[in-house]
Amino acid sequence: MKICExxxxxxxxxxxxxxxxxxFETPTGTDMGWFCRxxxxxxxxxxxxxxxxxxLCRGDIIVRIPGKMTVYTMGSGDDHAWCRVGGKAPVDAxxxxxxxxxxxTDVSAICPDRPEELAGFLLRYEQxxxxxxxxxxxxxxxxxxxxxxxxxxxxxILEVLADxxxxxHPPQGGPSFPEQFGxxxxxxxxxxxxKLALGECKPLRTYRTPKNAIRAIVRRNPTAREFVESRLRxxxx
Length: 237
What we know:
By secondary structure, this protein is an alpha+beta fold. It folds into 2 domains: 2-153, no CATH class; 157-232, no CATH class. It is 35% helix and 20% strand. The chain has 8 helices and 8 strands, in the order H-E-E-H-E-E-E-E-E-H-E-H-H-H-H-H. The chain has helices at residues 2-19, 36-49, 131-135, 157-162, 177-181, 185-198, 210-220, 224-232; strands at 24-26, 29-31, 54-65, 69-72, 80-85, 88-91, 122-127, 144-153. Strands 3, 4, 5, 6, 7 and 8 form a 6-stranded mixed β-sheet that branches. Strands 1-2 form a two-stranded antiparallel sheet. Helix 1 packs antiparallel against helix 2 (36-49), helix 2 (36-49) packs across helix 6 and helix 6 (185-198) crosses helix 8 (224-232). It is globular, with a radius of gyration of 17 Å.
C-alpha cells in the first residue's frame, strides 16, 4: 500500500506531532491523547490522493504490554477510529506509545501485512465481536494491539473534510481548529501530507511547535481546498 509506505516514512510522525498530547485520566478511564479521529480524517483523503480507495472505521482498540501497560477504549465513553484501505484494515496513524510508554520502541506504522513495522507487537483484527469476547485480549500474555471493527462509515471524504465535526468531536472549552487556523485547515493539512509523501516538502515537526506547524501549513497551502477537491471529487469512502 502506498499509504503505508507514506505513514512509515514521515506522515505518521508529522500527524502525531500536530495532534498527539499526553494521556490523562477521565471519570470513565484513560484518554490516550491520540486524537484518533483527527488522524483518521486525513489518512483516507491521503490514501485516495495516492490512488487507493479508503474507508473510515470505528470500533474499539486494546494495546497491551504484559506486566507494564494495558489501555483500551471499552467503557471509556468513546471509541477508536482508523481506516480500511484497498479493502484491508487496520490502517491507523494515531496509535503511538510516545507518551503512554516512552521507554518502549514505538510502532512505525499500523498497516495490514506489515508486521515488521509493529515493534514486536502482535496485531489482531476482529469484526463486530461482542465486547466480552474482545475484552479477553486484555489478559493476553503477548505484546498485543487488537482492534474490533464495529462500523464502517459511508460518508464521502470531501463531505467530511468540508463538515469535519460531522465526524470529529467538537472541542470542549476552547476554539476549534477552523476557528484558530481558518476554515480550510483540514484541507491544508491533507495537502501538506500529500506533498510530504511525495517528497515535495520537508517535515515541520523537527523545528516547529504543533501550532506553529499548522500556521505554516495553512500559509503554504492557500489553495488546498481547490487542490483536494479537484483530485478527489467523485470518490467515496
